[in-house]
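Long-time lurker, first post.

We've been arguing in lab meeting about whether 3-isopropylmalic acid would sit comfortably in this protein at all. Half the group thinks yes, half thinks no, and nobody has a model to point at. So I'm putting the question to the forum: if I give you the sequence and the SMILES, can you give me back a predicted structure of the complex? Inputs are below. Any interpretation is welcome too.
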Amino acid sequence: MDVMVLNGDGIGPEIMNAAIKIINKLHENFGLNINPVEYDIGAVTLDNGKWDLDHILDEARKYKAILKAPMGDPKLRNTGGTEKALDVILSLRFNLDLYANVRPVRLLPGVESPLKSYNNPDSINYTIIRENSEGLYSSHFGGLVLRDELAIDNQTITRKGTERISRFAFELAKKTKGSPKDGKKSVVCVDKSNVLRSFAFFRKIFSEVSSRYDEIVAKYMYADAMAQHMIIRPDELNVIVTENMFGDVLSDLGAATVGGLGFAYSGNISDNMGMFEPVHGSAPDIAGRNIANPTAMIMSTSMMLDWLGFGKFSKIIEDSLFNAIRSGVRTPDMGGNATTSYFTESILKNM
Amino acid sequence: MDVMVLNGDGIGPEIMNAAIKIINKLHENFGLNINPVEYDIGAVTLDNGKWDLDHILDEARKYKAILKAPMGDPKLRNTGGTEKALDVILSLRFNLDLYANVRPVRLLPGVESPLKSYNNPDSINYTIIRENSEGLYSSHFGGLVLRDELAIDNQTITRKGTERISRFAFELAKKTKGSPKDGKKSVVCVDKSNVLRSFAFFRKIFSEVSSRYDEIVAKYMYADAMAQHMIIRPDELNVIVTENMFGDVLSDLGAATVGGLGFAYSGNISDNMGMFEPVHGSAPDIAGRNIANPTAMIMSTSMMLDWLGFGKFSKIIEDSLFNAIRSGVRTPDMGGNATTSYFTESILKNM
Ligand SMILES: CC(C)[C@H](C(=O)O)[C@@H](O)C(=O)O
Ligand SMILES: CC(C)[C@H](C(=O)O)[C@@H](O)C(=O)O
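Top reply:
Settle the argument with this. Predicted structure of the protein with 3-isopropylmalic acid, as tokens:
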């Protein structure tokens, strides 16, 4: 099966290289049938005209799964390359209707949380489902500035969008082990329904959908209270579902509690396609130096395989990765001095 | 000078009682000229028709300063009392044009942060300036639900609103000691200008205003990155300025890093009026049991006095409060067993 691979900018090609080596090894050793088709798409090739948005979307539509490295290059700020790279990610999400942005918040083995009470692997382990196809973000394709005096964006919440993202969250909760604290399966609807009608609408639809999932507890929390909760009692969380912009902010917050964006991986899922990517950026300051931490890229790859139905291979990746980290192999951001290649080789050796 | 006092619901009257005792003691011992005029305004009295919004606004306009306890009572959810209480706070903010919501994030003596690297008082000490008169929140007074299929709210950002809140932030930064880490004075503009035009507009106006403040460093950060920063390196922060909704979420996040809402105090400031309140709610579950922590209410009082030009008295309050806490006096939420009255008496004794 062909998978589209977007190499991105900055550290993108380096960490993608790690992911591809792992996919190839799984092919050689265990017969995984995945063929990564690499595309040199990123701020640089958008800037020099080698690629444009429509062209990328046309290619993307040929695939069931996409593996995406971070994009963006601040050097191209003046010529628009970085803005174009950002448009790639938002256009892929919106135009391919990848409505569920799945962002696990999981304390991996060997990684330190900045929170005092959370020291064991998986003591923080929940998933944020960020609505990815509407909300405040949809105004990216609209938005108004009037006479340099006033600017307006819209937050749009639809029944269809809220129903499908709520269902997605409950279906995911079914498949989890529940919260680390007591194994209870729950979905928390996060909004500011006390202040805005669109959020109250979101909550209402969520509540309708929840009645079809008796076995999962439906909970409700305001976004400000959730920001607190994620710091004070993250072990009580299982699945969170929220609007696009809240999901953006809360998922970065979650990532910070489990060691930072270096460990934040994600999937953007539609009813028939999935795009998988690290949450972190292209880190141009450390690009080309063979020191980038490929963990989030590798975990995104694992998530892709799992979603494609290759859960067995995804398990092999995670076991080998965690064993490597447990045995002390760490990149500089993790306080060690392993290079990206050494880190990757250690994983491959474990497989 | 008369000050309007809103007693609120739940623990409101209890913690307000602590604040009033302190004000009265400052009057007796040191001649502070403040006369608290108490109003029994909250969800209950809104629900039973004793008060209505217009009436409250008319009264409020007679004062320069308002001290407000938390409002809301979940028991009144069906009759609308809680919604009305929420409308009081939003109406006061919007109708009195209290455009600057000042929310200090400060690790007080004797309070434990959940963050591993932050153990000393004031090792976290910065201020979030939440724009309080427009942004996504202004849609509270509008908002549309269409055919039960779709809901829309607007985020409105104006030049006037952004100029004045930016100026406010820079003026505040001037008066601070800078960041705990290195004393550098800075204002960080927090937005998602990469995604929405209204945020790009916010950033542009902020940047224009910043050019008038050469002595303060102007910085820029996306809201998701700021959520991380507040957990990973809060000691680098001095003043943050942001849109209303982001300010709501980020200030609760900040509060969590300094021990929770029990220690989060705030001011809502216009060009000629100020309303001061704890950020926490009315905690109906512990109301009437004399165990509520009045710290946020007392710190809000101190902030009010400082804003009114009575900085000397504000200093006396803080010194006595911190001494009481340092000497081991703690309410149950702080891990002790002091009652609200004992906690208050300990402060009064120190004054
Ligand atoms: C790059 C940016 C547009 C993107 C977003 O805001 O969604 C990123 O922050 C993310 O969370 O994936
Ligand atoms: C009570 C609610 C309307 C309020 C808000 O959302 O602003 C509160 O959360 C706050 O932060 O003061």
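For your lab meeting: Chain A touches chain B through 58 residues (CB under 8 Å). The first helix of chain A runs from residue 12 to 30. Whichever side wins, do check it experimentally.
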